[in-house]
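User: Second chain of the day. Same drill as before.
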Amino acid sequence: DFGARQEIMLGYSDSNKDGGFLASNWELAKAQKRLAAIGRKHKVRISFFHGRGGSVSRGGAPTGRAVAAQPTGTVAGRMRVTEQGEVVSSKFANRGTGLNQLEVLVAGVLAHGVGSHADVEPKETPEFDEALEALAGMSQASYAGLMAEPGFLDYFNQASPVAELALLKMGSRPDRRFGASGIADLRAIPWVFAWSQNRHLLTGWYGIGSALSSFVTVRGEAGRDLLARMFEHSRFFRLIVDEAEKTLYQSDMEIARLYSGLVSDSHAAGRIHARIAAEYELTRRLIGDLTGGDLSARFPMFKRRFDNLRRQMDDIHRLQVDLLREVRTSPGMADRKRATDALLVSINCISAGLGWTG
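Assistant: Same format as last time:
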């Protein structure tokens, strides 16, 4: 009999910033399994509070599928989640959509709990787990390599509106910890927010292509077959691939190139953009090989919605690049104020098109 209950919150944002999308999600899944096992050992029912939502990089995903992808034995009939402010209106603006969201969440939790009780040891999947451990490690190594690229911090600061995001006066916390200026000191939300504004969106896919490529290179056809079985039978891996695929579809390396033109060191900017673009193409190709179709063809509603907005968003991005250049170089206060006001409107427009801020 489980008399005691302990709620544990899981944070998706900082783990993504530190390790990348795949490694972050895999480490969180492992942590849940370990904590649930400790709970079973000591007869304490562990209840997880998922601090996720908004963009894919911060744990955002379709509610039902996100619940289904949780490790076996970690839901047990109870789950708490956050809803980001920018998606509240789309999910709970009226009684019908609100009820639908609650039905999806409740149904997902109940379905996950069928045959998966807190006092029952979950079925192990060692082959899949070992593969995911390898993929996560290779993905994190690729992501860390990009972070360590000479000039990367300047690229991030200059090729994105990260400094200007603070002018929006959004949220209850500053974008950086007091007196800090490095990537490690930047809070997770502006990190994701900035990469979405310049359409790199690398927080939702970077490193996955390198991981898949290395995995197949080392393991050959057996590795390719294992990935195909994981895509078919592992809800966790399937969700990772699906959400990375959708993020890749929203990314645009030509728009990203325009932002890289804002970097003072053009040589470093070209080198870093080329590295990101190469990983983008690799990830697109290998996810396409895995899914057997064109990018986001499996998500027609998502694809159609974004296609309808793409041209307008591209125009706004071009305008934003010009505004960033003007805000950063304009000598007159009046001109800078006018450009800043227009820049903030462009940030809001791009966020609305993507459907989230960070």
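The radius of gyration is 21 Å.

User: Great, on to the next one.
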